[in-house]
Structures are given as C-alpha cells and as structure tokens.
Amino acid sequence: MYVIKCPKAERNEVHIKFMNPIILRGRVFTSNELHIIRKCVANNYQKGRTYISRVICRELKWQQPNGWLKDRACRDVLLRLKEAEIINLPPSLIKRKKKKSINKTFRRTHLEEYDLHTPITKFPESIELKFAKGDVNETIWNELVEQYHYLGNNVTVGRCIKYLLMSDSRLLGAISFSSPAWRLKPRDDALKTLGIINSRDYTVNNSRFLILPTVQIKNVASHLLSLATNKIVEDWNNYYSIRPLIAETFVQPSRFKGTCYKAANWLEVGMTKGYAKKGKSYRNSQEPKIIFLYGLNKRVRAELLQLNKEASS
Is the same domain home to 221 and 187? Predict the structure, then answer.
C-alpha cells in the first residue's frame, strides 16, 4: 500500500494511490469506498464524528437488517483509518464527564423492592420472562446481575436482549442474549455444514444466566432456559429483524459442569482456546471454557444432533 503523505489539513482532499482493499470489522473497503469516506469527512468536518459516521453509513448503505445505521461500527473504522494516517478526523465534540464517587453502602437500589431472602421451594405455577431493555426492568436486571452473578454486569457492545425471570412478584433470576463470539470454529463449522455462511448473523450468545440462591427447586434452571430460548427467537426477530437459528454459550469448567444446559438438550461441542478480544488483538489469558450449542428450531436441532453423533463416532 502506497500512501501520499500530506499535511493533516489536506489529507482528506488527497487521493490514495494504489490502495489495496482494507478489511475492518469484517467489511471489505475498496479504494472507491475509501475515497467516499474521505470525501464525507472533508465535507462534514465541522459537524463532528457522529454526524460524519451517519453520512458515511448512508452513502455506503452500511446498515443492519432492520435498517438501523451501523454508525457505531463506522466510528470505530474511522478511528482505525485515522491511526493508519489515511484520513484526518475532527476533534471529538463529546466532553467526557468525570464519574462522581458514590458511596455504595448508602445507595438505594430497585432490588430493595423485592424479597431476595425467603427461599422458594415449590415449582412456580406460572413463570414470566419480563422484557428488560431501555427501561426500569433493565436497571433491575443490571443491579441483579452485578450483585449475584460471578461475572457481574458489563456494558454489552452490539445487539442484546435481557429478561427478568419472575414468578408472581418474586424474582427467580435473569438471563440475556447478545451478539455472538466473533470467531468460534465448532459453531462456524457446524453452520457451514448446514449451509449457513454468515454464522454470526444467525447466532445469539447466552451471555448471562442467573438463578438466585433463594431458588431451591430441582430442574427449574433447565426449564427457564427452555422458555428463554423459545422466546428469544421472536423477540430478536422483532427487535433486530433477524431470526436466529442457533444459540451458543460458554461454561467455565472450574465453576460449573453445564448440567442445566445438558438437561435442556444443548450440545457440548468442544472447548474454547481461552482467547479474549482486547481492542484490536486477542490475548490468551482466560480459562478455556466448554462450548454448548442449541438449535433454535426443530430442523437445526435435528441436524446439529446428527453432526454431533457423526463427530463422536
């Protein structure tokens, strides 16, 4: 790749000579598209990075299946192009505020409204999966997972749908599904065999599953998991205009055996290599985890089961 060097003020006006296609965030950017990006930056330089990213998304027709612009991904691409000295971005217009220190000991939470101490020993007559996204239910979900899940509550990048697991007025736990792992060989190989090429578009990751310690009922975890996998298909399709075909999850073997997943007919298909994505690179710094997959319709479940039998024989 040969780039004409120029002063920063002029960089967005200059054509790039002999530019090979660049792959960023899984998308190939041609020389012509890079020229469009540079032109959009130059024409809208004073309007800020968010405005520029939205203009670029419209010009390149870069959007999600439901029509939403992929402007967050675009902003990341712009930063990488800036680092490569291909474009010059305007200064960020957002001034980040310093976080105020909060004394958590005296902080009132929404969880105080619920009984989280009395044991639940009878199988619930009715169970509700309460949608928790962008409302007070999500706040409750965040507090619950932060306090009771060993991984805590992290900000999720990408698609995500959360549910509170409830029976009458009692909280049973919480569950969430989010964007899948970027690369996962057992999953990608399985879906490729099933004729599904863009595996990430049709996969959801069961990123959190919490049953509160007050819930002391045999087999309730696998039952809740089955209810959630049935519900997520329609909700994911309604919210993101994508009907998922497969769910994945990872179980840390030093803590769990994945019993509830096995009871809910999820298939154990291998182990992760322990790599975690940090910025642009991957670091082998995690404990390898057990990979479980689950087909989200009868056909995919049957084909996954057949593949698993063939691999085991």
Answer: yes
Q: Which domain holds residue 57?
A: 8-83
Q: Which residues contact 174 (CB under 8 A, 6 or more apart)?
A: 132, 141, 144, 145, 149, 162, 163, 164, 165, 208, 209, 210
Q: What is the CATH number of the domain that holds 272?
A: 3.40.630.30
Asked if the structure places residue 268 within a domain, the reply is yes
Looking at the 3D structure of the chain, how many domains does it have? 2
- Alpha carbon distance 167, 156 (integer Å): 27
Q: 274-306 burial string, b = 16+ CB within 10 Å, else e? A: ebeeeeeeeeeeeeebbbbbbbbeeebbebbee
Q: pLDDT tens digit string along 254-294?
A: 999 999 999 999 999 889 887 555 544 445 557 899 999 99
CA distances from 121 to 9, 148, 211, 225, 226 (A): 69, 19, 13, 18, 20
**Domain assignment of residue 188, yes or no:** yes
Note the Cα 200 to chain centre separation in Å.
Answer: 10
Same domain, 231 and 301: yes
Residue 92 within any structural domain of the chain: no
**Do 246 and 304 meet the contact criterion of CB atoms below 8 Å apart?**
yes
Q: What is the largest CA-CA distance in the chain?
A: 72
